[in-house]
Amino acid sequence: MTLSQSIFHNTSIPFAILDAQQCFVDFSKQWLSQFDLNPEIEGKDFLNEMPELPEELKLDIKYCLEGIEHRSDSKRLILANGDSVWYDWKISSIHENDVASPSVLIILEDITDKRREEELMIRSQEVARIGGWEMDLVKNSLYWSKITKEIHEVPEDYVPDIERAISFYKEGQSRDTITHLVQNAIDFGKPWETELEIITKNGKELWVRAIGEPEMVNGKCVRIVGTFQDIDRRKRIELGFKVVSERLSLATKTVGIGIWEYNIPDNQVYWDENMYLLYGIQEADFDGVLEAWQACVHPDDIERTSIEVNNAISGIKNFDTIFRVIWPNGDIRWIKAGATILWDGDENALKMIGINEDITDLKTTELELLKSEESLQGTLENSSIGMALVGKDGSFINVNPSLCESLGYSKEELLNMTFQEITHPEDLEIDLSHLRELIEGKRSTYQIEKRYFNKNGEIVYIILTVTAARNIDGNISHFISQIVDISARIKAEKKLKGLLELSTSQNNSLLNFAHIVSHNLRSHAANLTMISSFLNDETLGEAEKNDSLGMLNRASDGLNETIAHLNEVVQVKLETDKKLKSIQLPYIVQKVLMDIQALIDKNDLQISVDVPKQLEVKGVLAYLESVVLNLVSNAIKYRDPEKRKSTIHIKAWEEGQNVVLEVADNGLGIDLDKYGKKLFGMYKTFHRNKDARGIGLFITKNQIESMGGQISVDSLPMKGTTFKVVLLKG
């Protein structure tokens, strides 16, 4: 068969016939047109003439030449120039007259455009989140596309049914609506398009657009097909906008703001209902043109406002103005107006959209404020207390004579200064912080005590009261300050305070002195009593009596020395650093031990002393002796009678600029968890000792602190106690 004889040459199908050597035997005009070939390809090698074809196509041709009846496929091919081409083919094996000389029929189509359309359609559905569905009422089955399943958040292998599909819709209005729409489609063939809420498998609430189209056969619905789109984001924005719009409408009506629009080319003016309330007219009485608005404006303001409208339309200046309107009943109202211009592509003004606000009350207040300011000026000049008008930067705008007199500056000098320049540095931050709160609206006024420096550099004590003054827009314009000079009062208070402190100090000194006398003399008295009992003991030998007489002499000398020391206490002045002097600590320790030697011997105490020679501390001799005596006597008093040997260790060492004195014993100890906070309190006792008075540690702590030192304690019940005293090094 020759090409000219082929009855299929003019068919619209792109086909070609190849012989066993894969050479062209026949082909259609559509083949030549599709692949841009000419008729001379007859008899030529297929692969040479069409080299850029999928390898799968070439293999399928070979298979059919080898005896396979049919092969078909679709493949995408990337050409050498980078283009992408989709091919779809069908290949059949041909045998003529049962002779084993096979040839093949190839139908090959370029489906690139078709495939691209399909891909774009799929992509657009994915982007728009549009899925498909089909309800077969004959088979009672339901089909969901992949995207429809994704919207419902079910897996790809999910098989829906009609009842479960309805249950995805949110219970209530949405479910009732879809049930009604589906039933109407089945009963009457009515299509639907609606927006409802569903609850996905994961519990997420989602807005969707559902569209259904019924197919009718002989008046009976056999199938419903439709689409299903995720519109949640758009719907929620829409609902949010609706809420905002309703709020805006309510807000503008509540605060008395009207919204208007002026269509410039058509000279049409549109008002919302609030505008009619602001102008005191009925909607029926307004013609809706610019001239109708101008007729409402006060005659004295018409020319100015007309110029401002024209300037805004010409782009010269924004429309932001205040004018008066006259109501039909003759009332005059003040209106604040502002507008935005909308332009076309050629910069021609199309519309003015703006608002009107009734500020009559505010304007009236402003006028009253002007009168008040005039009155304030008179008050400012004649006030007996200092007054000033202060700018937001702290500069003095105006000051009265009273303030000038308090600070020693002339009015001209103060007007070239700021309040920051004359404020004491320690008071500036608190003043500025209150001022910031005033500016931020957190307070309406504030009052503080602070200090100024007058012209001579002397401190002036004042009570400052500051109030913000605001302009018609509600913004702070300046501050009004009232300054009361309290320097005389402060000086009197300081003098009184000094006298009170002196009296208190003297009373404390007298009280402390009384405690020292009572405590120290009691210790000596106890020692003397014990020595006397020794002397009265007739069983003692002559040597023991002589020893007792020696102790009596030493005790008497100690008593005399203590009385001499107590006399020094009377001379102590108020300033601690002037009454302190260097004292040899070893001397004090040895003196105290000698004074109470009888107590030590009676109680068979073992005492060790480790105090370096020449170690000096700063203190008051009587106080230091009292401290050592009290700590040692306490160790004796609260010894543990169950222990075979009671010990007291007295140790001292230098530590930087201090000297540490430590007195440790193995006595009864103190429960610090129970008594720690009360240990140094007045009249606090912690053991049932008949000689305890509860003032020893109280006195000791006060004496140590008056010498610039401190005391601490470490103790365990039945283990012993260690007192550590830190004193200034001499």
SSE order and pairing:
Blueprint: E1 15-18, E2 24-27, H1 29-34, H2 46-49, H3 55-65, E3 70-78, E4 84-94, E5 103-110, H4 112-128, E6 130-136, E7 141-144, H5 146-152, H6 162-167, H7 173-188, E8 192-199, E9 205-217, E10 220-230, H8 232-255, E11 257-263, E12 268-271, H9 273-279, H10 290-294, H11 299-313, E13 320-326, E14 332-343, E15 349-358, H12 360-382, E16 386-390, E17 396-399, H13 401-407, H14 411-415, H15 419-422, H16 425-439, E18 445-453, E19 459-470, E20 476-485, H17 487-535, H18 542-570, H19 576-579, E21 581-584, H20 585-595, H21 597-602, E22 606-610, E23 616-619, H22 621-637, E24 647-655, E25 658-665, H23 672-675, H24 696-706, E26 710-716, E27 720-728
Parallel strand pairs: 22-24
Antiparallel strand pairs: 1-2, 1-5, 3-4, 4-5, 6-7, 6-10, 8-9, 9-10, 11-12, 11-15, 13-14, 14-15, 16-17, 16-20, 18-19, 19-20, 21-23, 24-25, 25-27, 26-27
Protein name: histidine kinase
Domain Histidine kinase: 516-730
Organism: [Muricauda] lutisoli
Brief summary of the model shown:
Helix content is 42%, strand content 28%. The protein is an alpha+beta fold and 730 residues long. A 5-stranded antiparallel beta sheet has the order 2-1-5-4-3, with helices on both faces. Strands 7-6-10-9-8 form a 5-stranded antiparallel beta sheet, sandwiched between helices. A 5-stranded antiparallel beta sheet has the order 12-11-15-14-13, sandwiched between helices.
